[in-house]
Specification:
The protein is α+β, with helices and mostly antiparallel strands. It folds into 4 domains: 100 residues, no CATH class; 93 residues, PAS domain (Beta-Lactamase, 2-Layer Sandwich), CATH 3.30.450; 70 residues, Helix Hairpins; 166 residues, Histidine kinase-like ATPase, C-terminal domain (Heat Shock Protein 90, 2-Layer Sandwich), CATH 3.30.565.10. The protein is 54% helix and 17% strand. The protein contains 13 helices and 13 strands. Strands 2-1-5-4-3 form a 5-stranded antiparallel sheet, sandwiched between helices. Strands 7-9-10-12-11 form a 5-stranded mixed sheet, with helices on one face. Strands 6-8-13 form a 3-stranded antiparallel sheet. Strand 1 and strand 2 form a beta hairpin. Helix 1 runs antiparallel to helix 2, helix 7 runs antiparallel to helix 8 and helix 9 packs parallel to helix 10. The chain is elongated, with a radius of gyration of 45 Å. The structure holds adenosine-5'-diphosphate. Adenosine-5'-diphosphate binds next to helix 10 and helix 13.
């Protein structure tokens, strides 16, 4: 400010001196006063040029920087430029942050929709597009209630009570593949709301499976328990002959064995689900495995067909002597289950073939083929579900729990193997496990 005043004074003095000199030279009247006034006008013009240049720069920010300005206008220009640069930097920084936030919301597995105070869409992410079929650009400023027409959601939206979430079908839902969403609104700011949606289809399915499982287990245990309780009551209340007593005790033993088998199968399944998959460190001799399976198969066949006096024709076709990497008891359980099913469902006297062979790629194929009743195609896809049975009474008669093939499926998956079922109604079935090459090694 001092410099500005000095320059102003200097202009007046120079103007005054020039006027005084002109007065002397050219005999002007009042040359001094005119000179001072001219000095003031020149100062004003020089100052105005600086002001106009700075103003022009500020009006169109980013235009050419003003040249030839000095004094206070130069300082105004430098300070404004610094402020503008700081503002631009801050703006860029907040833009970057906003983009980071939006990118984070974009990759969220949950649907995110930002709504204004009138429930109009301000922004939504990709997942919300999948969930509701809305699009950030196309549906901007549209009222969400006009686009998401589920009655449950509409009622929830208008209730203004967002303490709980609401469950509704997703846009991609179909009768064969239902999609279920959990949607909740969270108020924020001045009347705005954040809508979050979550795909809970898998959770609901797991919950339904758990409920079914508990119901199935309870049902499976309740039946033999009811029978046992009935026999106990009979034994307690009736005077029975020794032979009748023995008969009832035999039936009771059968029921308790059935419960025992069921509990054992359940424990096997839970062990399979709760432990890590067997690695490649433990190698098992296939010959010994098959010898054990053969022995069990022969005893089972003899026991089941004892009344008909003609056991099954069991053929064991072992063409290879290899070792398998895996867990002995799991492999034994899976392979024996397939052989025991073949024996239990195939009529006495018929042929059952158990074969093992190496594939050209070095893998191993274990297969059990029977000439039993076969299975209708509509059941094949569901056989490995827990408690799924084609013929309930036949399964129970032969001591089945409905868990055998579920165990086989688990064991094969844990050994990176695949289970294949082929069956023709009235002709027989073939169950086959394909072990990958890395789990098989040829014995020298
Ligand atoms: P289960 O203990 O009832 O045998 P599984 O899980 O082992 O239970 O088998 C499921 C169902 O698959 C059986 O109830 C039976 O209906 C059918 N099944 C399995 N193996 C055979 C087979 N070899 N022949 C015909 N049906 C079979």
């Amino acid at each position: 400010m001092l410099l500005r005043a000095l320059i102003f004074l200097l202009c007046l003095i120079v103007g005054g001196l020039t006027g005084w000199w002109a007065n002397k030279q050219f005999l002007f009247d009042d040359g001094l006063g005119v000179g001072v006034a001219l000095g003031g006008v020149i100062w004003f013009l020089m100052d105005a040029v600086g002001a106009v240049r700075v103003l022009a720069y500020l009006r169109v920010i980013g235009s050419n920087e003003p040249r030839g300005i000095w004094g206070i206008w130069n300082e105004v220009f430098s300070r404004s430029r610094r402020l503008l640069r700081d503002r631009d930097r801050l703006l860029a920084e907040s833009q970057r942050r906003l983009q980071d936030f939006l990118s984070a919301f974009q990759v969220s597995p949950n649907g995110v929709v930002l709504l204004d105070s009138q429930s109009r869409i301000e922004w939504c992410n990709q997942t919300a597009t999948h969930h509701f079929g809305i699009m950030a650009q196309r549906d901007l400023a549209q009222v969400i209630g006009n686009l998401v027409r589920d009655p449950g959601f509409i009622a929830y939206l208008s209730s203004r009570d967002y303490q709980r979430s609401v469950t509704m079908p997703g846009r991609e839902t179909s009768s064969s593949r239902p999609v279920l969403l959990s949607v909740q609104l969270h108020p924020y700011g001045d009347g705005r709301t954040l809508l979050l949606s979550r795909d809970i289809t898998a959770l609901e399915q797991a919950d339904a499976m758990r409920r079914d499982f508990v119901a199935n287990v309870s049902h499976e245990i309740r039946t033999p328990l009811t029978v046992l309780a009935g026999f106990i009551e009979t034994l307690q209340t009736l005077e029975l002959a020794d032979s009748e007593r023995q008969h009832y005790l035999g039936l009771m033993a059968q029921q308790s064995t059935r419960m025992q088998t069921l509990v054992n199968d359940l424990l096997t399944l839970s062990r399979l689900e709760g432990s890590p998959a067997p690695d490649l460190s433990c190698w098992i001799s296939l010959t010994q495995l098959i010898a054990q399976i053969r022995q069990d198969a022969m005893s089972l066949s003899t026991m089941i067909t004892a009344e008909q006096r003609s056991p099954h024709k069991l053929i064991f076709d072992e063409s290879c002597d290899v070792e398998l990497a895996g867990n002995l008891s799991e492999l034994l359980s899976a392979m024996s289950n397939l052989v025991s099913n073949a024996i239990r469902y195939t009529p006495a006297g018929q042929v059952i073939t158990v074969s093992t062979s190496l594939t050209s790629g070095g893998g191993l194929v274990f297969s059990v083929t029977d000439t039993g009743p076969g299975i209708a195609p509509e059941h094949l896809g569901r056989l490995t579900e827990r408690f799924y049975r084609v013929d309930r009474s036949r399964s129970r008669e032969t001591g089945g729990t409905g868990l055998g093939l579920a165990i086989v499926k688990h064991v094969t998956q844990r050994h990176a193997a695949t289970l294949t079922l082929e069956s023709t109604l009235g002709k027989g079935s073939m169950f086959r496990i394909d072990f990958p090459q890395e789990r098989v090694r040829v014995v020298n």
